[in-house]
Design brief:
The protein is built from nine helices and eight strands. It is an alpha/beta fold and 221 residues long. Strands 2-6-1-7-8 form a five-stranded parallel sheet, with helices on both faces.
Amino acid sequence: MVNIAIDGPAGAGKSSIARRVSAEMGYIYVDTGALYRAVALYMEENYIEGKENITSALGKFEVSLGYENGRQRVFLNNRDVSEDIRKPEISMKASAVSAIPSVRDFLFDLQRNIALNNNIIMDGRDIGTVVLPDAQVKIFLTASAEERAKRRFAELSEKPDCPTFDEVLHDIVKRDYNDMNRPVAPLKQADDAVLIDTTEMNIEEAVLAVKRAVEEGVNAI
């Protein structure tokens, strides 16, 4: 099986780009961030806080992935939560729960089993460093905090109760710090990952750059 790992900070476009590249190249796309968001959603809906309480709750629900018309869907106890997990408050809570070792252990086997049985493009924060350290191709996708906030703000502006740009930027910077400084599997570029900075790229250019890196890496196997 061919495994492609794409890591990078929040708002770097990992999901949008990985989804496009996987569809064009015939790989299964796995958004690991969505799994952590689903855990965060369960904790939010059930008013569960604190590391010990969160750990105790992990065996009480099931998170799974499905695919509909080639698009990944996320299920929490067989309920499609693909839209619910994209709320800003869930994003921030997902960053917090992902720092808990028991949560990472809870989702680890699910991620590894998908990779063992499929040609996949998996994105997240620690795919190339922890989840799939032997992935044939590793990419670290990034952009400036301001550019990532600009992109995220454009997405949120179409929804009611949209936060201000400054609030979005603040959340991006805060999540970067949390992800890079957490004691367990912090966000960092793998030593053998290809760095792609999309600050000056549009979506088409970014997709092309990632696709080229994947093709070059696979051809070198």
